[in-house]
């Protein structure tokens, strides 16, 4: 990015945090307009240029709502530009129903400050790293240092609920894991106690978290599997996640409600 221009730094920040990075880019799918990006510890402000009036054409994304950011080169060899995409899930008003829900917003920028594709890619990577780091620092529950890449074991019960867990995973979860840069192994349980036995025997050091996509029953099995291990005292500290795949999903609903 460009050096932070002193005169712009204060108004573009959120008033509390100084601007850590500043750059001017186009959107991936609209190269005509240019946007000023200001990254602070808390948020990413996107200001359409020229900034005629404060707060017009300006959108601020909270890094707490960001699941990840990745950088990549152009598909087209004739394009010297590089790209970075940030994935946000802010609360937005629902369409045609009351209340708010998290909705996906992808912001994809084109870096073309030089004629050198490698230089542009380095710049895009710097932004992607800074935005990803910022999103991790802003998570409500900090679970210590995250290993990169982070690796999950996902246990999915294909029979749970109306038998739609696998479809729901493919349609809604897979993409978010990719956006967050999380590697995962998906195990589809074949019968009762499959997950319990697997968790009892597996080398847990391979996984940063165990994610259950099912109802309460499969989580119950996984907790039992962890407690049946010789190293249960350590094993039970493995972070567990639950994604609603069952019919009731009472536990998933309350955990996600309290986790925001
Ligand atoms: N492939 C499978 N075939 C049959 N049963 C399975 C399979 N995999 C897991 N199970 C068992 O199915 C039981 C019910 O699963 P779970 O509670 O997760 O779903 P559910 O009953 O649909 O959800 P909810 O608790 O929300 O009503 C669990 O005890 C689990 O051991």
TrEMBL record:
Gene Ontology MF annotations: ATP binding; sphingosine kinase activity
Keyword GTP-binding: no
Keywords: ATP-binding, Kinase, Membrane, Nucleotide-binding, Transferase
Domain DAGKc: 147-260
First-listed, main subcellular location of the protein, grouped into a coarse class: membrane
Subcellular location: Endomembrane system
GO biological process, one term: negative regulation of apoptotic process
Xref: InterPro entries: ATP-NAD_kinase_N, Diacylglycerol_kinase_cat_dom, Lipid_Phosphate_FormReg, NAD/diacylglycerol_kinase_sf
GO annotations of cellular component type: cytoplasm; endomembrane system; membrane
PROSITE patterns reported for this sequence: DAGK
EC number: 2.7.1.91
Key word Methyltransferase present: no
Listed name of the protein: sphingosine kinase
Organism (species): Electrophorus electricus (Electric eel)
